[in-house]
Amino acid sequence: MSAVLIDGKILAMALKARVRDEISRLKSEFDLTPGLGVVLVGHDPASEIYVRNKGIASVEAGMNSFEYKLPATATQDEVLAQVRQLNEDTNVHGFLVQFPVPDQISQQAVIDAISPEKDADGLHPLNAGRLASGLPAMVPATPMGCLIMAKHALGGDLSGKHAVIIGRSNLVGKPIAQLLLAENCTVTICHSRSHDLPALCREADILVAAVGRPEMVRGDWVKPGAVVIDVGINRIPAPERGEGKTRLVGDVAFAEAAEIASAITPVPGGVGLMTVACLMRNAVVAAARQSGVSLSSDF
Ligand code: NDP
């Protein structure tokens, strides 16, 4: 492997330390303890793990953590009532509803009901619009994590780089595109209807894969020296580890791409770790904005 590893563990630890420091300052100077809420509907095992990790990270950071569990049979009205209650709760500065939600509930109706200033996942249309308009917004955590990693790999300045993003979801692809555009990148967004994806990817100084297809991006899709950010988290069978065992891989064929790129994020141990740290940061930003308190200039 010739590429430098962009280590999510180290970068997330550094960000979490800054979040912890900022929270202790908010507590001591303003008697303000940020609170992050998570609503879980049903018993999706992966979601239960995410929610538990978010709770642990919140407490470690020194903030208040609130968890609300609704049964898989919960109606849309019940979920919306929970959202409205959190909109009103002054101890909760940011919250999210863990997706996916069961089929009887409209994900968009849930997103629309969240108060934009408490929208810890940055999914509300108002936040998406503010981000696109270059206005202060709640920014989705995973895209923010990708941006921090790309800047780390490139010494902070992304200006003029050609960023190619595979994926156009509201959660990942589109907000990453907006963030990179705001950093003066030239941005290409690819999706399932794009023609000759390998050729488009080979144009990229920064290649972001947010597709959800295991190891789709091959080594020869990568421009020599590119920075590769792999957002994908895919569980695939791993018979070499024993019967029925699985392992996690990204959307990028890591070993191949690492021979060509200048820097690359691993899976696991990459973007996923940054997501939690950025979510913590969002809760602090939300708490400060709602309380009219300024954050440290370098936060
Ligand atoms: P979505 O399924 O919402 O979006 C996938 C995108 O990939 C779509 O825009 C789709 O195009 C595009 N796509 C699908 N197949 C192809 C293809 N063959 N060629 C080109 N584009 C394709 O997924 P998300 O954006 O929510 O997530 C993407 C990945 O990131 C997943 O693996 C997910 O698990 C992971 N993820 C990781 C997080 C983390 O913390 N690391 C957080 C969130 C997600 P189209 O729009 O045309 O359908």
Short description:
With 299 residues, the protein is of the alpha/beta class. Helices cover 41% and strands 16% of the residues.
Description:
The chain contains 10 helices and 11 strands. The protein is of the alpha/beta class. Strand 5 (162-166), helix 7 and strand 6 (186-190) form a beta-alpha-beta unit. It has helices spanning 8-30, 45-61, 76-88, 107-113, 125-132, 141-153, 173-182, 197-201, 254-260, 271-291; strands spanning 4-5, 35-41, 64-70, 94-97, 162-166, 186-190, 206-209, 227-230, 234-237, 246-249, 263-264. The longest helix has 23 residues, at 8-30. The chain starts with a strand and ends in an 8-residue tail after the last helix. It has 2 domains: 30-119, Rossmann fold, CATH 3.40.50; 141-273, Rossmann fold, CATH 3.40.50.720. Helix 6 packs across helix 10 (271-291). The strands form 3 sheets. The protein has a 6-stranded parallel sheet, sandwiched between helices. It has a 3-stranded parallel sheet with strand order 3-2-4, with helices on both faces. It has a two-stranded antiparallel sheet with strand order 9-10. It is globular, with a radius of gyration of 19 Å. The site of NADPH dihydro-nicotinamide-adenine-dinucleotide phosphate has 25 residues, from helix 10.
